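Render Acidic leucine-rich nuclear phosphoprotein 32 family member in 3D.
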Amino acid sequence: MDMKKRIHLELRNRTPSDVKELVLDNCRSNEGKIEGLTDEFEELEFLSTINVGLTTVAHLPKLNKLKKLELSDNRISGGLDVLAAKCPNLTHLNLSGNKIKDLSTIEPLKELGTLKSLDLFNCEVTNLNEYRDNVFKLLPQLTYLDGYDKDDKEAPDSDAEVYAEGLDDDEEDEDDEEEYDEDAAPGDEDEEEGEEEEEENEEEEEDDLSGEEEEEEDQNDKEVDDEDDEGEQNGETMNCNKILNMYAALSKIRSVTFLEFEHNFVCIIFP
């Protein structure tokens, strides 16, 4: 797919002024030139043209807001002086895998005062003696060369930083969820209160039932006691009758009368 068609597809019914990032990797350039990219992409901040066969950046449009330009794995060997005029606010430039052989080729980049990171991996220039020291002297505005600063400290990976931030956000969300669970939501509190009330009602019902059972037991005990008292009284009456009848028979007593006085029997004998 050629570059013009690729740009048309990347727009996806958007206007060029709405585009902030544009990736044209692995498409075909016409005679090693950038085509289809115009000044209308005024909001463009990131442009990637990896492995598109570029030999020059001379046809790059004016992109004042462009900050990151990916040109790796092309055939660029010079003509970098146009970048200062076309992309004055460039901060990251990747030229790795191009045909850059000496320091004079990258010398025009000193005009890019905002340039902080430059990548020249797999370029012949990296084989020069004291390559790193000379590049930092030639471009004093640089912070990172090939991913490392002057003290060989690795540049932070923006993708890794974003990922780490995402992990931090997830951990905070988990902490919030745990705190939220510990504090308990209003609905959960209502449910707990309802369960407590139900438990209290069940306990009261159990108390009422136990009270009724106790009353029934007391009543049954009373009935048993009354039956025992009646049995005792009947037994005493039968014994008295037997004794008096025997006595009357022996003494030839004509009549015997029994009177109950305060649950006791009184015998009155008539001759």
